[in-house]
């Protein structure tokens, strides 16, 4: 007998309320995420506490709230303590906030705004080829403001807010529309995913455990010695990295090994990652096995390519994972999986259509937005985003197509997190590359290419996504009675507070320290690579007619990936013995799966052994140990962040994932 792999279909429990103090507490903690965790990343060069779907900073702050502050309030006066509903409201704000400051948007965007001017040289010819493509309203072009950003303000000078505010407000308007559309999309699919398909939502399980309260001072999660054993193991091992920074005599744990396989044609990375191992134990076995097995098969495919010397024409492009062939296979697989998800949901979507158009049928009282409001947001904000992109230089039809493809990827990633939520994932291709290659460079236009390049700030390497946080929040809120209309405005409040605090921090840090002295990826590499992408695509035009040797093979391998995904879906739904979930195939060669696959394998192997020899009872008894391991690694990163802030440690990277993240 196996444990229940799917989340139970629960109705919104009665009695939940969203208190003012929970919203205020959440807003204050959002400032920490927007400002302090951003500072730790871009100035202190620490691990990203808001860089991935696991939202490590949110979990760490929630850990401190539920382990220390809430028990203290209960000791002073029992009714002062936060109840479960209030805790879920706070956590909702934290995971929404975590999607904004660094990889989500702000730290990606701000360095891009002056980059085309600061990094322009006679050699790259950006002044002649790129500058004419830039609309005045969306970038920072004042020479003094550009210099002050990258080199720091001269003594006694002040930041040119009049130069920075117009483009920042313009970009915030676009992203507010995009984020509202993300929330609306999740409102429309929530019932299908949560109640009909009963997805597992692995990333919800740890905060739900921490939010459990009882008559005792500490909740049941924190009274478990098994949990603390897992916590101690991960925390102590990961803390060796922090100690090594200050005391080089302390050995630094080496948890990664590389093996050259198949005559040296490919390399397999064996990484032991506590956070991934712990989350893998929570996954259904067929989902976990699909991630590691499809990765091994992808590596075999790439090794075979190398051995026979086969490769597609062209170069690997921005945020493309694996070889060109494997990346396009993943893209085709992703499209088919999203289309199949829409087909499976057709009855639910038909009911929503009747509710929106006729006002009858499906009850939407237990949603954070009515279905009519969600549909209105999608239409109005979608039109606004399309027109915004068109004004930035992208032709109207391509602006619409780009948003459609981007949201298909977003929905895929949200589904990936809801069903296979390891906390660390990214797609193998981006919508920008797909549109330019298949629509053609001339059709997209040079101005359109520049516009698309800047959208890498929010739709590039998708390692964190507000859409995924929104559906996780709705899943948690349903269980405590907080799935109500005010929760939407709580999410909006978290967005606004984090936007303001993170923009302020990034601009202050750059003008105070000089952006060239800050985190190299955000302030130098990513900004320059974005403009290099524009120059490359303009200088290497593609289309089905002019460069068939480049585009047609990519389309073919995309079709192959789609066909394989269709076969996997068929097997999954028609053969009861089929052991693999299709999800893993679509991300089989992504860089993050490359680093995580071995820990996923170990987690799945341990779970299979526990179930075989101990059954469900042993599985449930051991489960707190693995939750403790997740919490231990995240807490080690958080504790050493505070220690380094006190003692001035820069670059002391105690990771939440592995040494590179």
How is this structure best described in words?
With 661 residues, the protein is an all-alpha fold. The protein is built from 26 helices and two strands. The chain has a two-stranded antiparallel ribbon. Helix 8 (161-196) packs across helix 21 (466-480), helix 12 crosses helix 26 (591-647) and helix 19 packs antiparallel against helix 23.
Keywords:
globular; 26 helices; mainly alpha; 67% helix; 2 strands; 661 residues; two-stranded antiparallel ribbon; 2% strand
Describe the structure in brief:
It contains 26 helices and two strands. By secondary structure, the chain is mainly alpha-helical.
Mean pLDDT: 93
Contiguous runs where pLDDT drops below 50 for at least 5 residues:
4-12
Instruction: Tally the helices.
Output: 26
Name the overall outline: globular
Radius of gyration over alpha carbons? Answer: 24 Å
The total strand number stands at: 2
- Percentage of helical residues? 55-70%
- Give the terminus-to-terminus CA distance: 37 Å
Largest sheet: 2 strands, antiparallel
Beta-strand residue fraction: under 5%
Structural class of the secondary structure composition? mainly alpha
What is the H/E string? HHHHHHHHHHEEHHHHHHHHHHHHHHHH
Strand order in space, largest sheet: 1-2
